[in-house]
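Tutorial, part two.
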Amino acid sequence: MKTVSKILVSICCAIALQAKATTGVGLQQATATFSQTFSGDYSVGRAINGTIADGLGWAIHPQEGLNQTAAFETTADIGFAGGSLLTFTLNQSHTTPGGHILGHFRLSVTTDDRSTFCDGLPTGGDVTANWTVLVPISLSSSAGETLHVLPDNSILVSGTLPSTDIFTITAPTSLTGITGIRLEALTDPTLPFNGPGRQPDNGNFVLSEFSVGIDVIPEPSSLALLTSGILLLAGGRRISVQMGK
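Running the prediction step on this input gives:
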C-alpha cells in the first residue's frame, strides 16, 4: 500500500506541475549564520529584496569551506490541507566575476512560531527551528548544469560552470501552517575549496534572488474523478494510467 500511495502522490504532483498557477509566497526577516561584507553588502536580505539589478545577493566570503544557513519567515502561514507543491527559484546572476553558483544545498520548512526563529541578523542569526527537510521531485538549471539529489535530500551541482544560472526546484509537502523556509549551503569535497559554491577562486556563491511559490496538489480522490481509469497493480511493479478526455 505504501507503493500505491507513493505512486498516487507522484501522479498528483505531476498533474500539479503541468497545470500549476503558482501563488507567490512572501518572505521576510532574512537571517543567516554568516553574510559577506567584503567588497559590498552581500547580506542575506539582499536575496529577497526583489531585484538583481544591484549585482548583489547573499554571499559568504571569506567563510567558504564551512556550511552556512539562511532562513526566512513566510509573511503568512502557507500550506494546503490536501498537500502543497512548493517551487523554489534560485537566481544567481552575479557577473563580476561570473561563476558564483551554489554547488550543494538543501531546502527545509518549519511550522514553528515566528517568534522563536529568524531574528533578522545577517551574521550570527538564529536559524534554529524544528525543520522538515523537503524531498525534491523536479530540478532544473537554466544554464544546463547537472543537479543531483543525494540520499540526504540535498542537491549537488556539477557539470560545466556557467557565468550565471537559475535553479528551479519543486518539492511536495503535506504540512500546513508553514511559517519559515531554510536554505542550507553545504560543503562538498567535489567543489572548489569544499564550496559551498562553485566559484573556482574561492568556493563562494552569490544568491541574487530567492523566491518561493506554492500550488495545491490534487487529492487522490479528486484525481480519480478526473481520470477514466488508474490501474494499480499493488502486488506487481507496473502502473497503467489512462487519462480521461
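Residues 1-8, 222-245 have pLDDT under 50 and may be disordered. In part three we will examine how such features are distributed along the chain.
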